[in-house]
Amino acid sequence: MATDGEGESARWPRRLYEEGDEPDPRFTLANERTFLAWIRTALALMAGGVGVEALNAVSAEPSDIRTVLAVALLLAGVLCSGTAFTRWVATERALRRGEPLPAPRLAPVLGYGLGVIGVAACVLLFVTGF
After folding, report:
1. Domain residue spans in the chain?
2. Nearest of 111, 43, 53 to residue 78 by alpha carbon
3. Which of 51, 45, 57 is closest to 113 using CA atoms?
4. Membrane-spanning regions, if any (predicted)?
């Protein structure tokens, strides 16, 4: 295990790395890549929210529906970002303990949530001309 020169673990979060055995590095790296994919998804959602609100700001007739859509995309990005780390920790803990991996909780929420946002965007597009 890596140390910082004083005998303490230099890896964070310490309490995670203090339990269980070191898993195969391939699994740890795959877990990290998955975490980074969720972070990229969060950034894309937030960028979409900013883009929708920017469109709203420059349009001749600003729309409350566009603002709600922008806020929904931003909140989805925040949720995705916040949940990505807890998912990474839970998966890493399971790998270290030799337990089954936790069920994905964010994927269905994000999938259905984005489905609702997509339907709202389509309704906005066809009803109001966006």
Report:
1. 22-128
2. 43
3. 45
4. 35-55, 67-89, 109-127
The answer to whether the CB of 74 falls within 8 A of the CB of 46 is yes
Nearest CA-CA partner of 33 in 82, 77, 92: 92
Alpha-carbon distance of 71 to 73, in angstroms, equals 5
Q: What is the pLDDT of residue 3?
A: 45
φ/ψ of residue 27, rounded to 5: -70, -40
CA distance 129 to 120: 13
CB-based contact 20:97 (threshold 8 Å): yes
pTM here?
0.77
pLDDT digits (tens, 9 = 90+) for 55-78: 989 988 888 888 988 998 999 999
Residue 122, class by beta-carbon neighbours within 10 Å (0-12 exposed, 13-18 middle, 19+ buried)?
A: exposed
Rounded to the nearest angstrom, the gap between the alpha carbon of residue 18 and the centroid of all alpha carbons in its chain is 26
Nearest to 106 by CA among 129, 86, 126: 86
Helices assigned H by DSSP within 18-130: 25-58, 64-97, 106-128
Q: CA 52, CA 107: separation in Å to the nearest integer?
A: 23
